[in-house]
Amino acid sequence: MTNYGAIPTSSNASPVVDLESLSRAKHRIKAGLATRRPWRVMFDFHSMGLPHGVSDAFTRIKTNLAYFRMNYAVVVLIVIFFSLIWHPTSLIVFTVLVAVWIFLYFLRDEPIKLFRYQIDDRTVLIVLSVLTVVLLLLTNATFNIVGALVTGAVLVLIHAVVRKTEDLFLDEEAATTETSGLTSYPST
């Protein structure tokens, strides 16, 4: 017999934990972190050396930015975090933005599709970066944010120039997505 509109009297008043959702989230976290390159590969001291010329430096920058893109994003986000420790409002905004970064960039297992177009990782990275900077600048911590961005960019560029690229191998899919920002997604 059912009593519509009656308050349920079951002993399970607390929400049931969905183990399948937790398992999927755990799997997505592991898969998302798997796309990040190992830190020991990034900081392999045997693979460090000065470039032979300007063209070699630009080639290294292009290759290393493509190969270590997620690692570089983590480094810049950490630098921004440390610059905002004394600005609690900015830190709260930044924490919310980090959650957005985690779900839209780091843990996404399928490409974002918008109006039949597939948006690649580089476009998502640029949009999230601009959104992060604009929202943080609205919190009146401009000096700290600009200093952190310059520091992060300098750290990334120094590493990208000094890190040799002979032992790095980009897969063909990464190389082709490196040349285009938006790709048309065929409709079925």
Task: Walk me through the topology.
Layout: H1 19-34, H2 39-42, H3 54-67, H4 69-83, H5 88-106, E1 112-114, E2 117-119, H6 121-137, H7 142-162, H8 172-177, E3 182-184
Antiparallel strand pairs: 1-2, 2-3
Kindly state the mean pLDDT as a whole number?
77
- Radius of gyration computed on alpha carbons: 22 Å
Secondary-structure element order, N to C: HHHHHEEHHHE
The oligomeric state is single chain
Helical segment count: 8
Can you describe what's shown?
This protein has 188 residues and is mainly α. Helix content is 60%, strand content 5%. The protein contains eight helices and three strands, in the order αααααββαααβ. The protein has helices spanning 19-34, 39-42, 54-67, 69-83, 88-106, 121-137, 142-162, 172-177; strands spanning 112-114, 117-119, 182-184. The chain has a three-stranded antiparallel β-sheet. A hairpin with a 2-residue loop joins strand 1 and strand 2 (117-119). The longest helix has 21 residues, at 142-162. It is globular, with a radius of gyration of 22 Å. The termini are far apart. Residues 172-188 have low confidence and may be disordered.
